[in-house]
Amino acid sequence: MNILISNGRVVDPANRTDAVQNVYVAGGKIVALGRAPDGFTAERTIDASGLVVAPGFIDLAARLREPGYEYRATLESEMEAAMAGGVTSLAIPPDTDPALDEPGLVEMLTYRAKKLNRAHIYPVGALTIGLEGERLSEMAELVEAGCVAFSQANVPLVDNTVLMRALQYAATFGFRVWLQPLAPFLSQVGHAHDGEVATRLGLSGIPVAAETVALYTYLELARLTGARLHITRLSSAAGLALIDQARAEGMDVSCDVSINHVHLCDMDIGYFNSNCHLVPPLRSQRDREALARGLAEGRINALCSDHTPVDDDAKQTPFSESEPGATGLELLLPLTLKWADRAGLALLDGLARITSDAAKIVGITKAGHLSVGARADVCVFDPDAHVTITREGLRSQGKNTPFLGMELPGKVRYTLVEGQVMYGLSEQQKVQSP
Amino acid sequence: MRNPQLNQHGELQHLLTLDGLPRNILNAILDTAAPFTEVAEREVKKLPLLRGKSVFNLFFENSTRTRTTFEIAAKRLSADVVNLNINTSSAAKGESLLDTVDNLCAMQADMFVVRHAASGAPMLIAQHLQNTGRDHIHVVNAGDGRHAHPTQGLLDMYTIRHFKKDFTNLTVAIVGDVLHSRVARSQIAALTTLGVPEVRVIGPRTLLPTEVERLGVRVFHDMREGLKDVDVVMMLRLQNERMNGALLPTPQEYYKIWGLTAEKLALARPDAIVMHPGPMNRGVEIDSAVADGAQAVILPQVTFGIAVRMAVMSMLGSR
């Protein structure tokens, strides 16, 4: 279908574009910007006056919970959430059940996702079989099946010999390894940041050393093996400082942070709010400020939702017994806008962290930008509308997020995937929206 | 965010923690407890304040002493008491905590006295009752994880007030395993709220929680330095499972350095009192000569504990 997105403010970080212009879509691709190509007739016109037209967002961590945790969420429910959030590309962590350690599993997941015809998925394969940290997965086969990188998700790798071998093996092919800095044991002794709040509430603490000790190890082994390392979900100022230092020494390492960690800190746990039970834990206010600043300065490369739908039963328990994680796909844009606004960043630079910068980490070239010839994954949103986050309003099956009840900026109006409108608010809904 | 234990009028709806509880409420509980100590002296030790009310002792963690004192307190107020010991190993999970609570609510409970191994469990129950519009049911925390043991903290304050009269000129030392102690957290909250100018914690670094000084205490590792000129020594129990391992090498070494002996106690003020929440490990955290000595007020603590629990339950239950 030929679609004209007219009069929108096109914000395309990859091309450093921020201007009101028309976008022409045909055959699933962007075919022109500004002036219509010869012979173009729009079968549908989306009036984007007063709205922002951006590349569809790329989320570096979205757990869709399949296979294995269908009672928490399904591909269907989470794809709807992605569309409502303007997220058109999802990197999927391997901590499913079974873990994404077999080409057949990855193929099945990719096939299911394709059939649903919503967001594109980019599976991250398990670095070791069953994430158990003993045997390497068939990395080459997994890449053939569609994996874009390898990781241990949130499962610490205990044996550093295995980690070293895994990095060596991945480096043989130039595969990317995404590692969550969680030192074994140190990261497993507690449920909240080891600081005043945990002390006051009597929650056992996870020290910052759980992150830094792991980072020292990972960075040293990456140096040794030449592996391409991406550090996921930084939580502390000290962790970021180690990455800065490694880069200053000439190392090529990227990193990301979750929407939760640039907006929240341990004080938000309040009276044992289990929606704030996350991995890694929410750390101090100082850490949060350092992460938000690091992201603004580009020292942290990307922002992600770390979408982890958890069922109510697993959250309505005492904090330490609750399942960590929060839903986030539909909050990625609002929380990016809020962070960028607070950091005094232009929209163009803010959106880069969930489009062009994230694309580089996943290795996506056809999307994450609005160049002519690019895949027409587009999000059209109203940057000035505010939305109150409610359980009812969330499409994800996971209703638990620390942001429930908060009013956040940014309302997605249309989401296009490969030139098809997969989400669109009707005129009536537009009027009702706050 | 409203303190979940107070209602919209700032009155006590549940007793969950002493952290953040205003001084006037602390004093009101202590004042209410005073006449109840006399009830115990009478031939008929009963008052009709909670007649017709059902108090459920909901113990998810073993306890004989605390459960018994709550039971006695409730019975002296003429309440009907139901004891439930629900042993939960985290592995063998059956009914969820809130399902259990809902079931007991359906049996017309008026008050839950809750002990749980997880910090925050009583608060979760209180929030659940509030969210489901059951404001007539009250929750008393009888100890949750490492978080709080408010009635223990209150009975300790009652004991200090009884022997020392005034809080505002005292130096108080809390000795031992503060890290794992819900008692210590409640004591610190109450002492600082009641205006004690110097609260000290003494122990090895492995047993003091991170940033504990942010709770308003001075940190000492040397027992002799920490006990110097204090008016009150509050000993903490050292759990058996923590005596040999990565926190402490042996109970012998612990006793040698942090055990309270007559010789170390001599560094405190001559009229200093010695307290312990029980049960004691004689020869580990405290020497028998001190535990049974003239300065120990450990048994009065137990007696006052009943009066304080009566005060809390009557204030909640008669509302």
Automatic annotation (TrEMBL), chain A:
GO biological process annotation, one example: pyrimidine nucleotide biosynthetic process
Enzyme class: hydrolase
Signal peptide: none
Alphabetical UniProt keywords: Hydrolase, Pyrimidine biosynthesis
UniProt-listed CDD domains: DHOase_IIa
One GO CC annotation: cytoplasm
Superkingdom field: Bacteria
MF terms (GO), sorted A to Z: allantoinase activity; dihydroorotase activity; metal ion binding
InterPro entries: Amidohydro-rel, DHOase, DHOase/Allantoinase_Hydrolase, DHOase_cat, Metal-dep_hydrolase_composite, Metal_Hydrolase
Hydrolase found in the keyword field: yes
Record domain Amidohydrolase-related: where: 275-421
EC number(s) reported in the record: 3.5.2.3
Domain Dihydroorotase catalytic intervals: 52-236
Name this polypeptide is given: Dihydroorotase
From TrEMBL, chain B:
Enzyme class: transferase
Single GO biological process annotation from the record: 'de novo' pyrimidine nucleobase biosynthetic process
EC number of this enzyme: 2.1.3.2
Pfam families: OTCace, OTCace_N
Keywords per UniProt: Pyrimidine biosynthesis, Transferase
Positions of L-aspartate binding: 93, 182, 237
Pathway annotation from the record: Pyrimidine metabolism; UMP biosynthesis via de novo pathway; (S)-dihydroorotate from bicarbonate: step 2/3
PROSITE patterns (UniProt xref): CARBAMOYLTRANSFERASE (PS00097)
All residue ranges annotated as the Aspartate/ornithine carbamoyltransferase Asp/Orn-binding domain in the record: 169-315
Molecular function, one GO term: aspartate carbamoyltransferase activity
GO annotation, cellular component aspect: cytosol
UniProt domain Aspartate/ornithine carbamoyltransferase carbamoyl-P binding: residue ranges: 13-161
Enzymatic reactions: carbamoyl phosphate + L-aspartate = N-carbamoyl-L-aspartate + phosphate + H(+)
Binding site for carbamoyl phosphate: 65-66, 115, 149, 152, 278-279
Entries under PANTHER family matching the protein: ASPARTATE CARBAMOYLTRANSFERASE, ORNITHINE CARBAMOYLTRANSFERASE, MITOCHONDRIAL
Role summary: Catalyzes the condensation of carbamoyl phosphate and aspartate to form carbamoyl aspartate and inorganic phosphate, the committed step in the de novo pyrimidine nucleotide biosynthesis pathway.
Family designation: Belongs to the aspartate/ornithine carbamoyltransferase superfamily. ATCase family.
Quaternary structure and partners: Heterododecamer (2C3:3R2) of six catalytic PyrB chains organized as two trimers (C3), and six regulatory PyrI chains organized as three dimers (R2).
Protein name, entry field: Aspartate carbamoyltransferase
Gene symbol of the encoding locus: pyrB
